[in-house]
Amino acid sequence: MHTMASGRMARALLAAGLLAGSLLAAMPARAETLIQPGAPINGCTMNFVFTDDSGALYFGTAGHCVSGVGVGVGLGETRYGTVVWHEFDERIVPNDFALVRIDQGLHALVDPTMRFWGGPTGVTHPADGDLGDLIGYHGYGIPFGSIGPARARVGVLQNDNAQEYTSVSPATFGDSGGPVLLLKTGQALGIATRFGGSGPTVAYVLERMRAQFPSLELVTAPFQQ
Prior knowledge:
The protein is an alpha+beta fold. It has two helices and 14 strands; from the N terminus they run H-E-E-E-E-E-E-E-E-E-E-E-E-E-H-E. It folds into two domains: 2-31 and 114-201, Beta Barrel (Thrombin, subunit H); 40-113 and 209-218, Trypsin-like serine proteases (Thrombin, subunit H). It has helices at residues 2-26, 202-209, and strands at residues 40-41, 44-45, 49-51, 57-61, 72-75, 78-88, 96-102, 134-138, 152-160, 164-168, 179-182, 187-191, 198-200, 217-218. The longest helix is centred in the N-terminal third of the chain and has 25 residues, at 2-26.
């Protein structure tokens, strides 16, 4: 049993290595706006864009990237918005998320399209992902962030359930908060919060935040495989 699982994972990792190079070479470069999934914020990475029935726009990041509700968030001296939801418990992997309401004057600079990959087309549920599926990252990990082409990376999904996903992925410090895309469908899978590739699923954080923001929804974007 262990040998079979190890063999499947080895084949998946080999496929990921081969496909990563071809994907990175083949995928067209996409225009980068200021605020979009995969963009940097101070020391971390933004994930997906959300909205509600008031017309407000939000983006997410990891809870450990900000200090709490009411805190201003941005890049350098540039402010993007204010934290309106914050959850971080280092003992519980999925409870690591923050939601930032984007300042209204910056709405024209928001693009919901994940950098490099495109999407998200929607939100995954556990039945959508399988062992060995390829997942796409775009982040500002310290070893990768200074080299533009290396910001987009490919990992391999190990497992996902109603609350969290695990993967074998080149996710490292600085990628925290970044978006994770299921590449076979373009759906938003999760949020990078742990070294090596694990964190809460987007479905889980949406469910939790709707206790305070009942009309909160993911903003989707086109995805082309």
